[in-house]
Design brief:
By secondary structure, this protein is mainly β. It has strands at residues 2-7, 10-13, 18-26, 33-39, 46-52, 58-60, 68-73, 78-83, 92-99, 115-116, 120-125. A hairpin with a 5-residue loop joins strand 5 and strand 6 (58-60). The N and C termini lie far apart (40 Å).
Length: 126
């Protein structure tokens, strides 16, 4: 089992930055992938970014490339999502997730991830 706790959400203005954290506990994550998804009201949960726990392989949604950065600190069992130049359309609940199955390339589908956090709200005012 893996437990995930997100933090760092809040209310910011367009153009601001925010950093989300995802603290993981439980089973070893060395072969896992950590991903961030988001869900806006009345919309499907969508992929944002992912990183392999044991490498620097990352993937990003086109909508956040160049603005968001995913990284992790293995010693702290924590993954982060640095979000810069936030836009109103980034407003959503952001979820951290873990894919415990070994994959060379991080998955981008919700179905790839078997552990989920409770989510943290990010609101960007325009």
């Amino acid at each position: 089992q893996v437990q995930l706790v997100e933090s760092g959400g809040g209310l910011v203005q367009a153009g601001d930055s925010l950093k989300l954290s995802c603290a993981a506990s439980g089973r070893t994550l060395s072969t896992s992938t950590v991903g961030w998804f988001r869900q806006a009201p009345a919309k499907e949960r969508e992929f944002v970014a992912a990183i392999r726990w044991s490498s620097t392989n990352t993937r990003y949604a086109d909508s956040v490339k160049g603005r968001f950065t995913i990284y992790r600190e293995n010693a702290k069992n924590t993954a982060y999502l640095q979000m810069n130049v936030l836009k109103a359309e980034d407003t959503a609940v952001y979820y951290c997730a873990v894919d415990s199955i070994y994959r060379i390339v991080p998955g981008t589908s919700r179905a790839d991830y078997n552990y989920w956090g409770q989510g943290t709200q990010v609101t960007v005012s325009s």
